[in-house]
Amino acid sequence: MQKMKIIAFTLTFFIIQFGYGIAQNVAYKHNIDEMSKNLKMEISSDNSLYEQRDTIFIKYKITNISKTNQTIILKDYWGFPKGMTISIRNQKDSSICKFPTKHILSSQLYTERQWKEFERTIEPGKSIAGIVKLQEIPVFIDEIKDGMLPIDCYNICLSFLGLTSNKLIINIEKYPF
User: Fold this and answer.
1) In 3D, which of 112, 90, 131 has the Cα closest to residue 27?
2) Other CB atoms within 10 A of residue 14 CB
3) CB-neighbour burial class of residue 12 (10 A; exposed 0-12, middle 13-18, buried 19+)
């Protein structure tokens, strides 16, 4: 009976983690609807034109637009915050991502007490900012090797724990050989 409970718990947790696989169990006590009303996420980049082999850095900023302190969990894992996903769509509105985050491949689990170590409070009107490498976030479709994006124009959007950023447009041109 105990073994069945463990299997049921494991299966339930896997389904929850996979269902929220994007968030990787980070929203253990956060109301995502509330967060999206109280926080705003913006992204930018230094350029809009890149060569195929360029590393593309995306700046993100999460701002508290409410009148009360907001607490989020901010834990870098594999080069970007856990719970962060990316949408990269080409001119044909097709995604070039197999999965919106590499964290879906992780089996790292945390207890509520461990997550508390990564909590960050954002005061009203204040922000938390960071920089991520676009090529490190998703699992790309098989045709994309070494994060080298095909020549195209892309709409990019980051999400973090239910927050969705503005759209960023970048163009990839041929790498000069």
Assistant:
1) 112
2) 12
3) exposed
Query: Has residue 15 got a pLDDT over 80?
Result: no
Question: Which pair of structure tokens corresponds to residue 82?
Answer: 């856990």
The predicted structure's pLDDT at residue 26: 43
The residues that bridge with 40 in the sheet, in sequence order, are 63
pLDDT confidence of residue 90: 96
Please spell the DSSP secondary structure of 25-36, one letter per residue: T--SS--HHHHH
Q: Span 2-173: which CATH code?
A: 2.60.40.2970
Q: What does the mean pLDDT of the chain come to?
A: 82
Structure tokens at 24: 């990787």
Q: What is the DSSP letter of 21?
A: T
Q: What is the pTM of this model?
A: 0.77
CB 155 within 8 A of CB 164: no
pLDDT per residue over 81-101, tens digit each? 888 999 999 999 999 999 999
Give the span between the Cα atoms of 45 and 107, in whole angstroms.
31
Q: Round to the nearest angstrom and report the end-to-end CA distance of the chain.
A: 64
Given a contact cutoff of 8 angstroms between Cβ atoms, the answer to whether 102 and 137 are in contact is: yes
97 near 139, Cβ under 8 Å? yes
Q: What are the structure tokens assigned to 148, written together?
A: 């080298």
